[in-house]
C-alpha cells in the first residue's frame, strides 16, 4: 500500500525549514504507523483494516470493516490530525496507544494533543492543554 503524504505541500510554504522538517517527519511517522496497522491481520477472518490520509495530508484515519457472526461491522481504530503545528489525536484504539508510538518516534509531548479528553483533564495526562 502506498500513501502519498504531501499531495498539497504548498500549505507549508510560510513555515521555517525546521518547522517544515518536523511536519514532514510527523507525516512520515503517522504514515508508517498507519501502514503497519493496515497490514496486520485482524482477529476475525472476515475483517479488513484500511488506512486513509486526506488529500491535504493532515487527517489520518484507520478503520476496520467486515463481517462478524453474520453482522456487518465497521469502526474507527484511530484518527489523528496535524493542525496548528501539533498532532491532534481524536480517537485512539491502538494497542499501547498512538501517543506512546509518537513519543517513541521522537514527537515532543508538547506537540501531541489528546483531543478526545475534555480540557479539564488535559492537565492530568501525558500531553498538554491546547
Topology record:
Elements: H1 17-39, E1 47-53, E2 59-68, E3 71-83, E4 86-92, H2 98-104, E5 112-114, H3 119-122
Parallel strand pairs: 4-5
Antiparallel strand pairs: 1-2, 2-3, 3-4
Question: What structural category arises from helix and sheet content?
Answer: alpha+beta
Q: Strand content of the residues, in percent?
A: 25-35%
- What is the level-2 CATH architecture name? 2-Layer Sandwich
Count structural domains: 1
Spatial order of the strands in the main sheet?
Answer: 1-2-3-4-5
On the 0-100 scale, what is the average pLDDT? 78
Number of strands: 5
CATH topology: TATA-Binding Protein
- Helix content range: 25-40%
Rg estimate, integer Å: 16 Å
Tell me the name of the CATH class: Alpha Beta
Q: How would the global form be characterised?
A: elongated
Instruction: Give a short account of the largest sheet.
Output: 5 strands, mixed
Order of helices and strands: HEEEEHEH
Uncertain segments are 1-17
Measure the end-to-end span: 34 Å
Could you give me the name of the CATH homologous superfamily? Answer: XisI-like
Number of separate helices: 3
Amino acid at each position: 500500500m502506498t500513501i502519498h503524504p504531501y499531495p498539497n505541500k504548498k500549505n507549508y510554504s510560510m513555515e521555517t525549514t525546521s518547522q517544515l522538517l518536523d511536519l514532514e517527519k510527523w507525516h512520515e511517522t503517522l504514515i508508517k504507523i498507519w501502514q503497519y496497522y493496515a497490514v496486520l491481520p485482524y482477529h476475525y477472518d472476515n475483517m479488513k483494516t484500511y488506512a486513509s490520509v486526506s488529500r491535504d495530508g493532515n487527517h489520518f484515519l484507520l478503520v476496520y470493516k467486515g463481517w462478524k457472526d453474520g453482522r456487518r461491522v465497521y469502526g474507527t481504530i484511530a484518527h489523528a490530525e496535524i493542525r496548528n503545528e501539533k498532532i491532534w489525536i481524536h480517537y485512539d484504539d491502538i494497542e499501547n496507544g498512538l501517543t506512546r508510538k509518537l513519543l517513541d518516534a521522537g514527537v515532543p509531548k508538547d506537540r501531541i494533543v489528546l483531543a478526545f479528553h475534555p480540557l479539564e483533564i488535559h492537565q492530568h495526562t501525558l500531553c498538554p492543554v491546547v
